[in-house]
Amino acid sequence: VQLQASGGGLVQPGGSLRLSCAVSRSIFNINPKGWYRQAPGKQRELVATITSGGTTNYADSVKGRFTISRDTAKNTVDLQMNSLKPEDTAVYYCNIFRFWGQGTQVTVSS
Description:
Elements (H helix, E strand, L loop, with lengths): L2 E4 L2 E3 L5 E7 L9 E6 L6 E6 L5 E3 L7 E6 L4 E6 L8 E7 L2 E2 L3 E5 L2
Parallel strand pairs: 2-11
Antiparallel strand pairs: 1-3, 3-8, 4-5, 4-9, 5-6, 7-8, 9-10, 9-11
């Protein structure tokens, strides 16, 4: 079983990034699928989740800026992040059930 996250990096405030999580086929249909983040000195928090049926859920802090999606052909769970703010800086983790990806760093700074 494997979740492999990619797409993090350094971006200026107001910029965009797209994270992608490649998921093992054996667990891809487990719900929910989600992204979490952990900033330095803070607890890990939910960013967004999506079900196989397409139902989504977002943290209030990212509503209207982030979009979670899943690609059933590629077995990926993606997070499009727009209008990024410095407070979005964190390590982002993809998650399905009890399985976690390795995390990818997102830094929003000028």
